[in-house]
Fold this protein.
Amino acid sequence: DAGVIQSPRHEVTEMGQEVTLRCKPISGHNSLFWYRQTMMRGLELLIYFNNNVPIDDSGMPEDRFSAKMPNASFSTLKIQPSEPRDSAVYFCASSFLAGGYEQYFGPGTRLTVT
Amino acid sequence: SQQGEEDPQALSIQEGENATMNCSYKTSINNLQWYRQNSGRGLVHLILIRSNEREKHSGRLRVTLDTSKKSSSLLITASRAADTASYFCATTGANSKLTFGKGITLSVRP
């Protein structure tokens, strides 16, 4: 298996632009997680899905952030409009189930908003 | 919060020495996991220990869990330069979410 795939790996955009991050989880995994990592705040869980259904989005910072999982093999995290404070590395992870199973992380998308 | 907090924040050792990293947490957990992150990469799962387990081994890794003290330790024996990375503990509680600590930066000098 190729592991969790994320695209793009790097994204540089101007403030106010829409940003879409993409993730393909490991085939057969039922849970998908979006995290954000910064030096100041560490690794934060933004949202997670079980069987394509959003279960907990309490970590989504504000309405500018939205996430979808239209099918078992694809998820997006969208930021609209983007702001400089959104600059971070965004990770997607998947696991067989939620509830403390080991998670497999993608390589991350480094987002820079100028 | 049940967030794990690692100690020390940074550790520098000589190749061949053992590295011990600690993690403390605040509320009851179902399990605790350790992850490694190399610079510029995603996290990689190392080991999981359940709340009813006290010790677990995997290769050169040894993890202990003391639920009475709400703490865990990760021991890497006979360290190698390739072990240089950040190490995170992560806890799972009743809400089923994995909560990560801020991480420990381990440097192994050749």
Remarks:
- The longest strand of chain B covers residues 43-50.
- The CA atoms of residues 5 and 106 of chain B lie 15 Å apart.
